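Researcher: Structure for this, please.
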Amino acid sequence: MLRHCPALMMTAPASHQGKTTLTAGLARYHRDQGRRVRVFKVGPDFLDPYVLEQASGAPVESLDLWMTGEADCRARLYQAAAEADLILVEGSMGLFDGTPSSADLAERFGLPLVAVIDAAGMAQTFGAIALGLSSLRPALRFHGVLANHVAGARHAEMLQQGIPSFIPYMGYVARQSEMGLPERHLGLVQAQEIADLEARLQRAAAQMANTGLAALPPAVTFAPVEQPAIRPHLTGCRIAIARDAAFSFLYPANLQCLRALGAELSFFSPLADQPLPDCDAVWLPGGYPELHLARLSDCRVTAAALAQHVTAGKPLYAECGGMLYLLDRLTDRHGQSGMLLGLLPGHATMGQRLAALGLQQVELDGQILRGHTFHYSSLHTALTPLTHARRASGTQAGEAVYAHGPILASYLHAWFPSNPLAASRLFGGPRTD
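Model: Predicted structure, token format:
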């Protein structure tokens, strides 16, 4: 049965145009009107979704035609259409950036587009950017353009003068430093670190109330899709997952997948120096261990429990920041070092420039698991990699995957629903289906 729901993708000509702030403001505005809002994020992202979740009051999931796959995207949108009055999708980078791009996803699902353009430092040229975005791919449903960081009414008037009459103008958002979201090297600061996040969201919502986006966008038709059943390969398996300010890069879909596999999930905080819950396997996800070196170096209870777990030969899977926590030592961007778990030989150093970025997939025991990488650190270890991931595009080798006793570790952030059987094997699941 087809489902119909108003839906809109918020996009831009580039990153840092204000998409997340304004998508969050729009979600909060419609939520405050009593509407049920579901928000999605295009591409891999751990940080924006937390802000968007705070704004909308519902978990935020990723959509990506390569990493999550078209069928997965279709299923999640179809489910959202059953429970929401409005679906918002925040694009990634610029509208046409990447393969696949936000434009590819919008065209595939017929999502109307609104382009957020940072208008600071420009006037009538604003219209040329709007024209290019709206006309490059005629198959896209271009709903309008929204000016951001506008200095005042006169500035807004000059911007509007440059827009062709056939491009819908949704209005403008005034420049307001108290509304924007703070950033650090990997993107936005985590939502839980922004003390006045609620106030910022309300300011953004108030701004959106004065734009053309206060009205609901057109309804989009979403079709059902059959998804293969997930076999319970992890029935009876208890997985302990690190989750706190240092280890927070957890996709809701990954947790859903593990539960569908039959696993029992529990959580612990290395920063709070908590012991491991009773478990058969451990997952150390990514995050910001470099921001908490002193505390992590002093956490003896957690360290002893993880060492005992590894000595017992139980599976431990670590991604990116979780892998760094396993090392002997980590040096932050200011040259300060901390001694860490010493369960994976080597050390890592945080750099000033991005070390790796992009979609990748890895083959483990004949099963392919898709994901992505995004990090500033460099790892130095004498270990020989078990294998390397492959990039979604290009010929260069992807991230190394290390096996050391029961530990499997990599910079790669895996998307478990891309292959639930492969995901189950990370935690001791069967070698055959």
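Researcher: Any notable elements?
Model: The mean pLDDT is 94. The longest helix spans residues 65-83.
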